[in-house]
Design a protein that fits this description.
heterodimer, A: alpha/beta, Rossmann fold, 8-stranded mixed beta sheet, 4-stranded mixed beta sheet, B: alpha/beta, TIM Barrel, 8-stranded parallel barrel, 12 strands, 27% strand, globular
Chain lengths: 201, 253
């Protein structure tokens, strides 16, 4: 069973639909007991970083997530859920993240429109099994105004260029993975990435 | 790099996709879920559904359509029309839409932009603006109710305010160009683009492949929206993207 962490943020329906399409059983829950018993967790998120962390804390889900990950549980963060895996964010003031991954979330500084909204090409930062699974010029759908900087190069699997900014697209270390883009909204390649992290990872 | 987006727009009335010129003379063109799946296969980058149902009791129809679409296609889509409160926004997003577009409701109650953005995030609040050039040619005014009411508001100023209130994207329709098939309204788009730094979707006037190329080559928009061209199979989304790629415009194929 895959647990989708429900803390009042995000379009969980689309994620649930994508998992169903992939034949995965999943539960949307804010109950720490239910979530702890899941084989894998997905941490979604939209809105502002600080609000997301606060909503998690209000539901005591921050403690649950930390314990789950420390015990080796597999977690995939999506969009803001991915950003929360890092040390901190500067969105609307300074907020601490989980710190599972090295890096700080900062604002996109560019002449291009912010937020970045749209399909960006995926570029490989390292050799990875997904490379043989995705199509040659795979793209994914991004919607964000902040991005993870100063990440550990070993964690960075895929990035996308926005102007001259290298946006961390897909990151993973041990049992923790995250994608800035929305795999559930990124067509066939997005579904393949989601499937990979629900099976192989 | 980020790619320019091609967005088919589906006007939905009483559960069916319809199309008319300048919002009159509507004709049924198909089932919204079937059309959405067709565009998904043609690698459309997003979809926009505009609910033009006149009566309140048919609103549930739109929610059901959103639910069905979200089960079948794994790409982003926006829903607009008839959204007046944050509760309306919540219902549509919970049904599986990624963004909502607010048009006349935002003109009547601008606070909905602030409330919507703070509750659901800037990224899911699209400010849709229909504009028409003032008779003296000095700029564009915001029009509502399908162009029947001139609000007297300057469109560029309104968009600037809308973005400061939290709109994350602009869907700009030129009522002068809409239905003419003479091309997008480049001067209007450029005026908006200079005023704000959020992505702009161009709408109204597209009648040929060349019009898509022009709006992107002029850097007047991040995305282009079209309806009847696609519904009547005059062009497929794939045709447009293959053409644009040949012309050196970055697209996802």
């Amino acid at each position: 069973m895959i647990g989708i962490i429900d803390y009042g943020m995000g379009n969980l329906r689309s994620l649930e639909n994508a998992l169903k399409y992939l034949g995965k059983e999943c539960v949307i829950s804010s109950d720490p007991e239910v979530l702890t018993s899941c084989e894998r967790l997905i941490l979604p998120g939209v809105g502002a970083f600080g609000d997301c962390m606060k909503n998690l804390k209000d539901r005591k889900l921050d403690v649950m997530v930390r314990e789950y990950v420390e015990k080796g549980g597999k977690i995939l963060g999506i969009c803001l859920g991915m950003q929360m895996l890092f040390e901190s964010s500067e969105e609307k003031g300074f907020t601490e993240g989980f710190g599972f991954l090295k890096g700080k979330v900062i604002r996109l500084q560019t002449d291009l429109p912010v937020p970045e909204i749209g399909w960006n090409e995926l570029e490989w930062n390292q050799e990875h099994p997904l490379k043989g699974i995705l199509s040659e010029h795979a793209h994914a759908y991004y919607v964000h105004s902040y991005y993870a900087a100063q990440t550990d190069p070993d964690d960075l699997i895929i990035c996308s260029l926005y102007g001259d900014i290298r946006v961390a697209g897909l990151v993973a270390r041990a049992n923790v993975a995250g994608c800035q883009f929305h795999p559930e909204k990124s067509g066939e390649d997005g579904l393949k990435i989601l499937k990979y992290y629900m099976e192989e990872f | 790099m980020i790619k320019k987006r091609i967005i088919p727009c589906l006007d939905v009335r009483d559960g069916k996709v319809v199309k008319g010129i300048n919002f009159v003379g509507l004709k049924e063109v198909g089932d919204p879920v079937e059309l959405a799946e067709r565009y998904y296969r043609q690698s459309a980058d997003e979809l926009v559904f505009l609910d033009i149902t006149a009566t309140h009791e048919h609103r549930d129809t739109m929610v059901h359509i959103v639910e069905k679409v979200a089960e079948k296609i794994f790409m982003p889509f926006t829903v607009g029309g008839g959204i007046r409160t944050t509760e309306d926004i919540r219902r549509i997003l919970r049904a599986g839409a990624d963004k909502v577009s607010l048009n006349s409701a935002a003109v009547r109650n601008p606070d909905i932009l602030n409330e919507g953005a703070s509750m659901f995030g800037d990224q899911c609040i699209v400010l849709a603006v229909d504009g028409r050039m003032r008779s003296d040619g000095s700029g564009w005014n915001v029009v509502i109710n399908g162009g029947r009411i001139d609000t007297g508001l300057d469109a560029v100023e309104w968009i600037r305010e809308g973005v400061s209130r939290g709109a994350g994207e602009i869907l700009l329709t030129s009522m002068d160009a809409d239905g003419t098939k003479q091309g997008f309204d480049i001067p209007f788009l450029k005026a908006v683009r200079q005023a704000v730094n959020v992505p702009v979707i161009a709408s109204g006037g597209c009648g040929s492949l060349e019009h898509f190329r022009e709006v992107f080559a002029e850097d007047a928009a991040d995305a282009a929206l079209a309806a009847s061209l696609f519904h009547y199979n005059e062009l497929t989304v794939t045709d447009v993207k293959e053409y644009l790629q040949k012309e050196g415009i970055p697209v996802r194929l």
